[in-house]
């Protein structure tokens, strides 16, 4: 009897103690929905576009935080994506053109998704995250394959991705013609492309982005079914509005061609660097695009229409993914970030496509939403200078993960609580001699000189020689010359110098005053030597010297 009383007393004490000190279940780490878009400049309603029809982007911006002044580290696919995914800048990882695979140059670097994988996340992606195909870095960066087995739709896999038979034939014909004329390496240089655009009455899933959006949704559902308590990092990469501009007809029909206004600032900057602009190589490689001379207005309007149709097409896929997240009931524990890898010229400064050091090519849309961000910062726009390389440390901080030591970005998580907080003094981008590089940013091949681009290259070379005089050196300008752009609150400052021999003096400066000249129409460096000196001192401090004080 005495023993039973002791046991009963002990049980009561334990029960009371458990009531006093309840066990806490560890909170589940937040999911990450990582929405990547290719070649999208801020041509979005929420960013002030008067023509773009983007209801899903706009809705997201009204719920989260939009960055007005976000910049890529290099305005071309591979360097930009390698930089943001490794959290290090292009020259640090030795990726400044599209043909260097970041993992070959950096076998042991820990990528963003790899870091989350190493910290217990299920990591997976569909579509384009790295520049390489879907299998890129599968072993290290990703923990699983997408849920292909859950898909009832098959990828189209048509020649060139085109829906229309005539465009498929044009694509095959263009490739065959350049191989016959310039040899089997011509396609590697981007030659032999089909039409630049297509309007076809097909379902969203016929083109790769629509398919990849459905695959991302199926994959999310599969992860939640198999591992409901495990956080996920899901990357969904949209290829459009990258060339070629292929979009279902219904997205073209959203726009009245007569309402589409063309670029108004169509001249190269006055006194600007002649090596700073290219001859629109990437667009001209497409079937039906003039190989020399300006793009006439009628064709330019069709091309911009095609770009806008693709923007609306991508907007719809983003909307489907976010709606699926809501329907799955996991949005209240998911961080969503939307970004583009670089900007894009649509006739601005007289050229088309990316690959320059100017505002239109380096400024990108960047938006973020978190479940616990303050109500008074939802729908707000921040003017703080931020960079794509900042996303890695930001997501680490928001998810409560330690930041790897190699990171060269700076977390903008504090801006979610105070979007007007004093922030970086400058953002940095770079691009090697656009005029004398192929659009993959690699040095001009002899094959390129032997094609229809030869006369264009000679024409721009003559302009560079005339401007640079005795500073002209073919090896330097084609292989080692880098344009470094520093964007401050009020200025864009571009320093052209030898990136191999960093101690040499800059060859040329460009300075644009965004208070009076947001279109960057006139280089005012020569008439402002003291300001150039001041900005050069700031530039020489590098990214570390321009962090928030």
UniProtKB/TrEMBL annotation:
GO MF annotation list: iduronate-2-sulfatase activity; metal ion binding
Occurrences of domain Sulfatase N-terminal (ranges): 30-400
Keyword Calcium: yes
Cofactor(s) required for function per UniProt: Ca(2+)
PROSITE patterns hit by this protein: PROKAR_LIPOPROTEIN (PS51257), SULFATASE_1 (PS00523)
Pfam families: Sulfatase
PANTHER family per record: IDURONATE 2-SULFATASE
Name assigned to this protein: Sulfatase
Organism from which the protein derives: Seonamhaeicola algicola
Taxonomic lineage: Bacteria, Pseudomonadati, Bacteroidota, Flavobacteriia, Flavobacteriales
């Amino acid at each position: 009897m005495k023993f039973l009383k002791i046991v009963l007393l002990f049980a009561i004490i334990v029960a009371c103690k458990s009531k006093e000190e309840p066990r806490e279940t560890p909170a589940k780490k937040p999911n990450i929905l990582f929405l990547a878009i290719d070649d999208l400049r801020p041509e979005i309603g929420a960013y002030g576009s008067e023509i773009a029809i983007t209801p899903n982007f706009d809705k997201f911006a009204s719920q989260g935080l939009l960055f007005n002044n976000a910049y890529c580290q290099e305005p071309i696919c591979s360097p930009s994506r390698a930089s943001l995914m490794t959290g290090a800048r292009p020259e640090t990882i030795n990726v400044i053109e599209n043909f260097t695979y970041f993992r070959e140059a950096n076998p042991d670097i820990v990528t963003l998704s790899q870091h989350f994988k190493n910290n217990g996340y299920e990591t997976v992606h569909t579509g384009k995250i790295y520049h390489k195909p879907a299998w890129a870095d599968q072993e290290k960066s990703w923990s699983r394959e997408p849920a292909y087995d859950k898909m009832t739709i098959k990828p189209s896999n048509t020649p060139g991705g085109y829906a229309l038979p005539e465009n498929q034939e044009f694509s095959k014909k263009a490739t065959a013609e350049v191989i016959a004329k310039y040899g089997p390496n011509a396609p590697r240089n981007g030659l032999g492309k089909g039409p630049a655009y297509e309007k076809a009455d097909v379902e969203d899933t016929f083109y790769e982005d629509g398919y990849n959006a459905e695959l991302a949704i199926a994959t999310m559902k599969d992860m939640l079914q198999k591992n409901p308590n495990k956080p996920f990092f899901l990357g969904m990469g949209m290829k459009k509005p990258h060339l070629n501009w292929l979009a279902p007809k219904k997205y073209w029909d959203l726009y009245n061609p007569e309402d589409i206004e063309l670029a108004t600032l169509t001249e190269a900057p006055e006194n600007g660097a002649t090596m700073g602009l290219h001859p629109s190589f990437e667009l001209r490689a497409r079937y039906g695009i003039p190989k020399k001379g300006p793009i006439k207005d009628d064709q330019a309007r069709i091309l911009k229409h095609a770009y806008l149709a693709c923007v609306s097409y991508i907007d719809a896929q983003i909307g489907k993914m976010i709606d699926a997240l809501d329907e799955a009931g996991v949005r209240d524990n998911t961080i969503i970030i939307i970004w583009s890898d670089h900007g894009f010229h649509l006739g601005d400064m007289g050229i088309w496509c990316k690959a320059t050091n100017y505002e239109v090519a380096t400024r990108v849309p960047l938006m973020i939403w978190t479940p616990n961000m303050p109500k008074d910062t939802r729908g707000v726009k921040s003017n703080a200078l931020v960079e794509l390389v900042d996303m890695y440390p930001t997501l680490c901080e928001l998810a409560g993960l330690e930041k790897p030591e190699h990171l060269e970005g700076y977390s903008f998580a504090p801006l979610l609580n105070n979007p007007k907080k004093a922030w970086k003094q400058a953002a940095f981008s770079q691009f090697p001699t656009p005029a004398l590089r192929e659009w993959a940013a690699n040095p001009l091949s002899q094959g390129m000189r032997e094609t229809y681009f030869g006369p264009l290259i000679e024409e721009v070379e003559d302009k560079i020689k005339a401007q640079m005089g005795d500073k002209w050196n073919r090896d330097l300008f084609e292989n080692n010359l880098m344009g470094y752009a520093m964007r401050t609150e009020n200025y864009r400052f571009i320093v052209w110098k030898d990136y191999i021999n960093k101690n040499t003096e800059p060859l040329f400066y460009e300075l644009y005053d965004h208070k009076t000249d947001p279109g960057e129409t006139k280089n005012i460096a020569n008439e402002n030597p003291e300001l150039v000196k001041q900005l050069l001192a700031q530039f020489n401090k590098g990214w570390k010297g321009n962090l928030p004080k």
